[in-house]
Design goal:
globular, alpha+beta, nine-stranded mixed β-sheet
């Protein structure tokens, strides 16, 4: 049916239609007349369909009610009376995205799928969840997802809090960044909902009552406050009829619901905030302060200005050519500088942050900041910087490569940033209009005016100084324990019994299976809906001497994707950390041809991306056989290929690795980044550390994790005495990185671009030196340790256990992939997340032989390890109906069949080549997944039991919890 403005269809009225040629779509804005719900449809040919429903949900306190509601509505609804329909969906859906997110002032529920039947199932479960949840009749939902009392098992059974969101936010507030952000929002928005933590402060979450919880949902989760987004190739008329008949028409609008986000009145002067974050007792506090200037920059509804400010943020603060970043670093204010523009709220905030600083640098920080901005405002921003950033942004917009995320999802989330405030939802999708405006603004002095009026003259600012406080975590924990002891003391015997009774009933509910009738309510595809043939990449592969060439033909819209894997397997262990350091240095030092600032500008002007990494590729069926490569990945428009090779040649052959001053700056920045983000990287650190106990390839990869951080700490402490040695080793490694010996050269582009692109690749490689390490045997690396506890100032843990099942005579089967799904959303979900309170848990079996179990942001430690030890007994008795097994199989295939971008297709082909994976093996694995039975899962019990019997474990987490369980570890390491 042809739609036009004013058309009425199934209760909806079309209000506006906009052609969007930049994304090859048409936008339809509609209103549902009876309920007042807003709808925005992006019609296009994309079969990866997206649905999102969003609500304005401003917070009125720090209890995290918006966040807890987001979790809780997915725990059972009118049609789907299960404990957690969300989990059942994940188990058995072919979704390409399924999640929910809480922002500072809105909550959104997006789903995506390429399968029509599956997409309708997902939409229906989500709509029933948001409009008809069981949270009112089931008080245990708040207790599980929010908070509840428990009595601990140790000693005199202390009174404690537990709950999924409560523990999640304890993990979030283990980061100085989260503490600083909360202080910023409190200071900038003292009269606005933005002053509250929508995710919930751990100290405030237990103040949320069942009544307040239910009232919040009743007020905000109404179609009158709903914004529905649809994207992709679908029968729109059918969906409008369904939305109207099944949901929206049952909620007549009242005209009384006005959810406003009040504007904060600007300040007449900058406000200053002093706060602290915890570091361990005895830690040196020098160079660990964070300084930030934060400025409210107007309204998200002024999209052109916000886009200009985003551009300005990148120009001023991102990259090695950013003038404000360079000015602050060169003034010695700190060791790293970053900037951001938070545009996902009605009043966006521009921030400049310096880390690795000291409290006495605060005045100098402000002076250098203002002086630099004043100079740029008066003298002008270098035109080349603005043009480079514009070209970089245009490349990203045109390519629309969002990695594993469907582009329709990202478009929808961007639309919500204006639409929910009454703005134009198409503004962020009209790329050409926006880019034309941003380009024309260069010659009008627009960016300099923004600096003057928005960043300098604007007094709606706050200056935050966040200092380290040794022992704060221990003191806070002691005070909390005292407060909880006092609460317990005031409880009489009946109240304590009630605490135990409620906790026991909650655990019993969590452990009890859903009824077959309830499970059958979730719509399910059949195994016959799954494509059986494996989607294996078939690149064209040729051999020219020591060079293997891989060409993958696909439509790339005039973008060429280049990839080199230079073999460096023979690099000895004593050079591995230096190799990872060199990847952090390349492109960030001067060359004979360009300064490092100019290199960054040229890359932004002419390239879509240029990345360097050291990466081991493990043999597909043996974790102890691998090849280390130096990987260069680049993407570039056809017209700019020559510029790519000019830049690469300059970096590869003429880099100034002997610049001691610049090298010191880089080491300082990289170390500071690790200092700031170690806890956030805790899962990766723990995973590779654990695997290094039993995998030779992991021992190599681990040199880029904890071992690398320790290397950086030692190097920084002795930089002056070691710098000459460092330079010598980096210069020794450069010809091992870029060389003309054993390598895989890969290319993906439009067919007509191939010949010339390959000739340029060959010409670049021919000028490179020979490598002393290419084609050599891998070094014999020793395990760094075993069963280690790695302590941080965090409040939660990452708990891992695993081993190498090949060592016990077992071989990989596709049933292991299905078992990952079963454990992630079954056994581990219940034991670790639901009962234990962790944010997440999972497992991984790799064809190379490695296997591990993990928990994420886990308040427990010993209990999680016990759950792992109990797993073999669970598997021995595992039972599942054919329907349940089909659900697990479909959920597994959903993860295997993630839609890929051109760059991801090329990487998939490269990985198969370097790992040596035969197509027959990949097909066999897929067949085993599709045909998996409960018997196949039970047959894995001995494998899990024998592998876990090796006793390998690794934990990254809070010092207190690790010390409480010190008998579990052979070594405790302070991060």
């Amino acid at each position: 049916m042809e739609l036009s403005v004013g058309t009425k269809l199934h209760g909806f009225t079309v209000q506006k239609i906009t052609a969007l040629p930049d994304i090859e779509a048409a936008a339809y804005e509609m209103i549902h007349d009876a309920s007042g719900a807003h709808l925005f449809y992006l019609g296009c040919a994309d079969d990866n369909k997206v649905f999102t429903i969003g609500f304005r949900t401003p917070s009125q306190d720090d209890t995290g009610v918006a966040h807890i509601t987001e979790h809780s509505v997915l725990c059972g609804s009118r049609k789907y009376r299960l404990k957690e329909p969300f989990v059942e969906l994940v188990k058995g859906s072919l979704n390409t995205f399924l999640n929910a997110m809480t922002y500072t002032d809105k909550t959104v529920y997006p789903v995506a799928s390429r399968n029509d039947k599956d997409f309708r199932n997902l939409v229906d479960v989500y709509l029933d969840a948001v409009f008809y949840p069981l949270i009112g009749e089931n008080p245990f939902t708040l207790r599980q997802e929010g908070w509840h009392y428990e009595l601990g098992k140790e000693g005199d059974k202390p009174l404690i809090y537990n709950g999924v969101v409560y523990n999640e936010m304890k993990g979030v507030y283990s980061s100085p960044d989260a503490i600083e952000e909360h202080e910023v929002m409190k200071a900038l928005f003292p009269d606005s909902p933005y002053r509250f933590e929508s995710g919930g402060l751990p100290s405030a979450i237990p103040q949320l009552t069942q009544e307040g919880f239910v009232a919040f949902h009743k007020k905000y989760y109404s179609p009158e406050n709903a914004y529905i987004y649809l994207y992709g190739n679908m029968d729109l008329e059918d969906y409008l009829s369904y939305l109207d008949g099944d949901y929206l028409s049952h909620f007549p609008k009242t005209g009384k619901l006005k959810v406003e986000i009040p504007l904060q009145v600007p300040f007449d002067q900058t406000r200053e905030v002093k706060a602290s974050y915890p570091v361990p007792e005895g830690d040196d506090t020098a160079h660990k302060t964070y300084l930030s200037m934060n400025i409210v920059v107007g309204s998200a509804l002024d999209q052109k200005r916000i886009m200009a400010l985003k551009l300005l943020t990148h120009v001023l603060l991102d990259g090695n050519n950013a003038p404000l970043r360079l000015a602050l670093l060169r003034a010695g204010i700190g060791s790293d500088v970053s900037g951001s523009l938070n545009g996902s709220q009605l009043q966006p905030v521009f921030s400049v942050e310096v880390s690795g600083s000291d409290p006495d640098k605060e005045d100098q920080f402000v002076k250098v900041l203002y002086r630099t901005l004043q100079e740029l405002s008066r003298n002008g921003i270098p035109r080349r910087l603005l043009e480079a950033e514009l070209n970089s942004e245009e490349f990203k917009m045109r390519e629309a490569d969002f990695n594993i995320y469907p582009k329709g999802l990202i478009y929808g989330l961007n639309v919500m940033e204006t639409w929910l405030y009454g703005g134009d939802p198409t503004a962020c999708l009209r790329f050409t209009d926006c880019l034309d405006f941003l380009r024309s603004a260069i010659d009008k002095g627009y960016y300099e005016q923004l600096i003057e009026t928005v960043l300098l003259d604007n007094t709606h600012k706050c200056l935050v100084t966040l200092t380290p406080e040794p022992g704060k975590e221990a003191r806070d924990a002691a005070q909390f324990a005292q407060e909880m002891a006092e609460k317990k003391r005031k409880m009489d015997a009946s109240q304590l019994q009630e605490v135990e009774t409620i906790a026991d009933e909650l655990h019993a509910r969590q452990a009890a299976p859903d009824t077959p009738e309830a499970l059958a309510s979730i719509p399910l595809l059949q195994r016959s809906d799954i494509t059986r043939k494996n989607d294996f990449e078939h690149p064209q592969v040729t051999q020219e001497g020591k060079h293997t060439r891989l060409v993958l033909h696909q439509f790339t819209n005039k973008i060429a994707y280049f990839d080199w894997c230079f073999d460096l397997t023979g690099v000895p262990e004593d050079l591995l950390c230096y190799a990872y350091l060199l990847t952090d240095v390349l492109g960030k030092v001067d060359t004979d041809d360009y300064s490092y600032e100019e290199l960054t500008t040229l890359a932004d002007l002419y390239l879509g991306g240029l990345n360097f990494e050291v990466k081991p590729y493990t043999c597909y069926n043996d974790t102890n056989t691998y090849r280390n490569v130096f990987k260069v990945s680049a993407k570039v428009l056809e017209k700019n290929e020559d510029k790519l090779f000019e830049i690469l040649s300059s970096i590869a052959l003429r880099s100034h690795l002997d610049d001691k001053k610049r090298l010191k700056e880089i080491v300082s920045e990289v170390k500071t980044d690790w200092d700031n983000n170690f806890f956030a990287r805790g899962m990766t650190v723990a995973t590779l550390r654990l695997m290094s106990y039993f995998s030779k390839s992991a021992r190599s990869m681990e040199h880029d994790q904890l071992t690398y951080y320790q290397f950086l700490q030692d190097l920084w402490a002795h930089f002056e005495e070691r710098v000459d040695q460092v330079i010598e080793k980096l210069q020794q490694l450069l010809p091992a990185f870029f060389h003309q010996d054993e390598q895989l050269q890969s290319l993906s582009c439009d067919k007509e671009m191939e010949k010339e692109a390959l000739e340029k690749m060959a010409a670049f490689t021919e000028q490179l030196p020979h490598s002393p390490y290419a084609g050599q045997p891998m070094p014999q690396l020793e395990a760094p340790g075993k069963d280690e506890g790695i302590t941080t100032s965090g409040k939660v843990q990452y708990v891992l256990a695993g081993g190498n099942f090949h060592d016990h005579g077992y071989h990989y089967t596709g049933a292991m992939k299905v078992l990952e799904t079963i454990l992630r959303y079954g056994y581990l979900w219940t034991k670790i997340r639901v009962q234990g309170g962790a944010y997440g848990a999972g497992t991984r079996f790799d064809p190379s032989g490695t296997f591990y179990l993990s928990s994420y942001r886990d308040p427990k430690l010993a209990e999680s390890l016990q759950a792992y030890r109990d797993l073999p007994a669970y598997l021995e008795k595992f039972q599942a109906s054919d329907r349940e097994m089909t659900k697990y199989v479909i959920g597994t295939i959903s993860l295997v069949d993630t839609p890929l971008t051109p760059a991801m297709h090329l990487e998939k082909a490269i990985t198969a080549r370097l790992k040596g994976t035969p197509e027959t093996v990949a097909q066999k694995k897929r067949d085993q997944i599709i045909d998996c039975t409960a018997d196949d899962i039970r047959a894995l019990a001995p494998l899990v039991k024998d592998t876990l019997s090796d006793g390998y474990l690794c934990v990254v987490g809070g010092e207190g919890k690790i010390q409480e369980n010190k008998e579990l570890f052979e070594k405790i390491i302070k991060a």
